[in-house]
């Protein structure tokens, strides 16, 4: 968030000779950002366009806030929290990670063929693939991802939706995948192609899951780290590029592709091998780092700096006498935001909302 919003606060951004060339973030010059890590709206913004106007209003509202509650923990993102506090100069409370722990249930396995299938796979052998409920890759990218999975020969569970530009809830066309891809994977017992939905938390918690290919949305990142699962990053929009950057720097993620750029099946296969291959040196290092991330998230739930402790401190500081006023103001603003037609449109189209 510190990166994303400070970029918007600095438009127009510097031009570079190549999309992979970096430029220093104006507000934080020790951080370099690549043009390929910018959304199309951000790359084209001049400070006077509709997106700039909308997000600058958000930034102004943040700066006037009495406090910010952030879905992270101090020990997970010390640098990001420091940047946010330095930039906005607003009391910031890390009250995360907000994660749902899966409840082990024999009934859940009976109703989920995916979990039953995972029970039959070796530990740490399966790649789980999901781009979340909002984002989708293009048809050519989907084709190359499927080919890369076949080349890798590793097991997978792919939660699949129609590609970008098509009705997300429409029929799935066989032409979006290599001919016979799904049938071969299932016949060989090597993979499942699942339409639209899967029990993600339960899959990440399963012993057979060895890695997750994700768009690096913050909820997906938190869930993967909370279960000690290494990541393959494929950021598509908003702050996902910087989540992926952070995870790669922490050596718990390998970035496969970025945005809508072309992707190569061989690169997909190599990335899958890096996180699941038995002889891969990267796999061992990533597993160790992912286990450390899980420990950090577990620690965030207990102790003096736990999310519960931080939330109690926040409540102590706003209740009373300001608590009632604070809650009434928050409820009024929430109601106004929900009822505004234009706000609803922006909320529906903007990935941060």
Radius of gyration: 21 Å
Gross morphology is: globular
Sketch the major β-sheet. Answer: 6 strands, parallel
Count the E strands: 10
DSSP strand content? 5-15%
Give the N-terminus to C-terminus distance in angstroms: 12 Å
Structure at a glance:
The chain has 353 residues and is α/β, with parallel strands linked by helices.
Helices and strands, with pairings:
Layout: H1 2-8, E1 22-24, E2 32-34, H2 40-44, H3 50-64, E3 68-70, H4 78-88, E4 92-94, H5 106-111, H6 113-119, E5 126-130, H7 139-152, E6 155-160, H8 181-187, E7 191-195, H9 200-205, E8 209-214, H10 218-226, E9 231-233, H11 240-249, E10 253-255, H12 265-276, H13 281-299, H14 307-318, H15 322-339, H16 341-349
Parallel strand pairs: 3-4, 5-6, 5-8, 6-7, 8-9, 9-10
Antiparallel strand pairs: 1-2
